[in-house]
Each structure stands twice: as structure tokens, then as C-alpha cells.
Amino acid sequence: MSAQREGEEADVAAGGRRVGQPRVSAKTEGHNPFPVVLSSPSGAGKTTIAKALLKERQDVGYSISCTTRPPRPGEVEGKDYYFLDRAEFVRRIEEGAFAESAEVHGSLYGTLKAEIERVLGAGRHVLMDIDIQGAALIRQAFPAVVTIFILPPSGEVMLDRLRKRKTESKEAIVRRLESALRELQAIEQYEYVVVNDVLEESVRRVAAIIDAEVVSRERVAGLREQVAALIQRLEDEINTHSS
Ligand code: 5GP
């Protein structure tokens, strides 16, 4: 069998798409892209999951948040965050630039409306790594949002991951632990829960949630029209046979 033929067979097996190759755009496949919120207490590994998912899936884009916290070593302006000072952040709130914003661990964080529009406009699901307050606001603004809560496999693993973050002061870590307590209590507001034990498995689960949501009845674009056309076609056929 030729390589091209094999490729064609793989295409068919994946419903028109090569096995293992992600969709480039949700829109081109007849689905409306939607926001996907990931929340978790610090140390659950949510940001690592988000990064791995973005590497794998071209149909998912990242909403880069604004924050007033200083960059950590290795963080890049315009990639990890837009780093703003408080005055600039407040100015942006006042001009209505944010879809949501919240104070987290003593700093301001916010999702720009323009970021959401940029990613959805490119036909991609928009992944947001935001806290529980932001998630509640996004849920109100975008009822189509999918919310996923990432849990650490145990308290020990979570504390261990936090301790390894040597970039933070003791006070900052205590603040994170206090907000972790509050975050855990909000878990019931989320539709999905992924326990982050093995990273690859967690990424696979988040991807599976997105795939399932894509084909959920409410989301299939033009479903009513498609079904009406099918019904019409069947009725025509029945009439032809019975006349
Ligand atoms: P970190 O400082 O560790 O990057 O993030 C601290 C917390 O702020 C995390 O829970 C993260 O999800 C949350 N966060 C990051 N960006 C945003 C945002 O745009 N809005 C809100 N509400 N929370 C955010």
C-alpha cells in the first residue's frame, strides 16, 4: 500500500482527519468554539496541564491574562502574562477592557475581552487558567463555557509542589495555602474534575472533555437545520414510494 493510501485510510479512521492530528479549527468542522476554564488550588499542576494541552491541540488557544504580580524567572511578557502595574490595570478595568478580573493572592489578575475574541475569532476553543472568582464571572458572561477543576492527587503532593516553587517567599506560600482552602470549597461549581496524578493522563482527560463537549447536542452548529433537511429528504422519499 502506498504511503498516500495509508494516509487516506488513517484519515477515514479519524473521521476525515489523520489519527493523532488535532483539528486546526473548531469552526471549520462545523462546531462553534467555546471557552474552557481550568481552575485549581496552587500546586495542583493546572498550568503544566494547560501548557501540554496547548502543545498537542491546534484547535485550542490560550487566553493570556494580565496581572500585577511580578514575573517569575523564565516568564515571558505577552506569552505567560501581560505584566501591568496596578495603575495601568485599574485604568484597563475602568475602560471596560476585561471580561473578568479578580484579586488573587494579593495581586490583580484579569482576562481581556480582546484575548477571548482573538482566540475564538481564530476558530479555537479558548483555554483560560483562572481562579474561582474569575470562573464565576466568565460563567455569567459566556454560558457556553466548559469548567474543569484540577485536583492534586493528595495533600502531600500538593504541598510538595508548592515547596519546590523556590521563587516564592514564605508569606506568599501561606497566602496561596489560604486561597487553596477557599478554592477547594468551590469545586461544586465546576462541571468536570480531573485528578492530576500522571500528567499525560490528565492532559488526555482534559482533551477528552473538550472532544465530548464539541459534539454535545447544544453545541453542534446548525443542528436544527441539518435535522430538518434530513426529515424533509426522508418525507420526500416516503411520498415518492407511496404515490
Ligand atoms: P499564578 O500567579 O500562580 O500564575 O496564578 C495565581 C492564580 O491566579 C491562579 O489560580 C490562576 O489560575 C489565577 N489567574 C491567572 N490568570 C487569571 C485571570 O486572568 N483571572 C483570574 N480571575 N484569575 C487568574
Helix/strand order: HEHEEEHEEHEHEHHEHH
Beta-strand share of residues: 15-25%
Overall radius of gyration: 22 Å
CATH architectural arrangement: 3-Layer(aba) Sandwich
Kindly identify the CATH topology.
Rossmann fold
Secondary-structure-derived class? alpha/beta
In whole angstroms, the N-to-C terminal distance is 49 Å
Largest sheet: 5 strands, parallel
Low-confidence stretches: 1-22
Instruction: Work out the helicity level.
Output: 40-55%
Task: Give me the count of strands.
Answer: 9
List keywords for this structure.
single chain, 243 residues, alpha/beta, Rossmann fold, 9 helices, disordered N terminus, binds guanosine-5'-monophosphate
Give a verbal description of the structure.
By secondary structure, this protein is an alpha/beta fold. The chain has a single domain, classed as P-loop containing nucleotide triphosphate hydrolases (Rossmann fold), CATH 3.40.50. Helix content is 46%, strand content 17%. The strands form two sheets. Strands 2-7-1-8-9 form a five-stranded parallel β-sheet, sandwiched between helices. The longest helix has 20 residues, at 223-242. It starts with a helix and ends with a helix. Bound molecules: guanosine-5'-monophosphate. Residues 65, 69, 100, 102, 104-105, 109-111, 129-131, 133-134 line the site of guanosine-5'-monophosphate.
